[in-house]
C-alpha cells in the first residue's frame, strides 16, 4: 500500500476540441486542411503525378458556352481549342480532306491532337503525322500540323461526311478536352469527257499539198482523280485507207512538208479552268506541218498529271498524197479516243 504525501492531490484532466468553418458575410470555406499549402510533382520512369495540399478541388461552374474550373490544377489548363477548318477542295476531294487547326490564344509551344469520326464520335480515330488515321492520338505543334496551310487527311472513303475536333496540351498536366467539331464530306470519284465534231472531212487530197482539216476536233476533259487523267488515241487502219483501191496513205510522225505522202494528228492548243495543266504529248505537240502517228495501239495525246477542271484541247488532222497514189473517193480512217483517270 502506497501513501500520498500531505501535499499531493489528484486532479482530473480533460480535453475540449473546438471546430468551425471560416466565414464572413461575403464568403465561406466549406472545408479546409492544415498543411504546407503548396503543390508538388513527383515522377519515375513510368509515371508523373502532381499533388496539391490545402485546397478545395473538383468544383466547376458551367453553361452551354463555357466551363469555369476552380483549383490550382484545373486553372492551369489551356484554353479549349476552337473547331478546325475542313476543306474538300471546293468539292473535288474524294479520298482526302484538308485540316487546318485554329490555335486561338495559346503559347507557341502548345501541341495539338485531332480526333476524327464519321458517326458523331461514337467511334473515334486520330490524325497521324503522315496524314493517315489511327487509334492513338498524336500531339504536334501548330507548325508541324502545317500552320495556316493545314495538313491533308488521307485514305478516306468517298461520299462520306467526316467530323474533326482538337485538343491541346503544353508540357505536363495541361491536357484539355476536345473542343467543338467541324465537318466536311468527301465526294465521289469522277471523270467527264467529250469531243466534237464526231467526223471531219479533208476534202480533195491534191498530190504534193498538205491538207488540214477544216476545223479542229475539240476535247473536253475533267476529273478529280489524284493523279489526273489522259486522252488516248488509236486508229483502225494506221492511215487513210481506200478499200476500193486497196491502198493506204500511212500514218507517221514527221514533218509532212518533207514527205512525199503521209497522215497524222497535231495538237494545237490546251487550256483548263483550274488544276492540270493539260499537256500535249510528244509527238503530237509539233507546229507547222509536224504530225504524230496513230496505230491500232492506244497512245496518249493529251494528259494531266493532277486533277483538272474545264480542260480543253484542240487537234487538227493533216494529210498529204503523192502523185503515185491511186485515185479514190473512199480514203478514210476511223479514230477512237478514250479518256481514263488515275484514282
What can you tell me about this protein's structure?
With 343 residues, the chain is mainly beta. The protein has three domains: 20-76, no CATH class; 85-185, Immunoglobulins (Immunoglobulin-like); 191-341. It contains one helix and 28 strands. The protein has one helix at residues 72-75, and strands at 39-43, 48-52, 60-62, 67-69, 85-87, 96-100, 111-117, 125-127, 133-134, 140-141, 151-154, 161-169, 182-185, 191-196, 210-212, 217-223, 229-235, 239-242, 247-250, 254-255, 262-271, 274-275, 279-280, 290-291, 299-304, 308-320, 331-332, 335-341. The strands form eight sheets. Strands 7, 8, 9, 10, 12 and 13 form a six-stranded antiparallel beta sheet that branches. Strands 14, 15, 16, 21, 22 and 26 form a six-stranded antiparallel beta sheet that branches. A four-stranded antiparallel beta sheet has the order 23-25-17-28, with no helix packed on it. Strand 3 and strand 4 form a beta hairpin. The termini are far apart. The model is unreliable at 1-11, 15-19, 34-39 and 54-58 (pLDDT under 50).
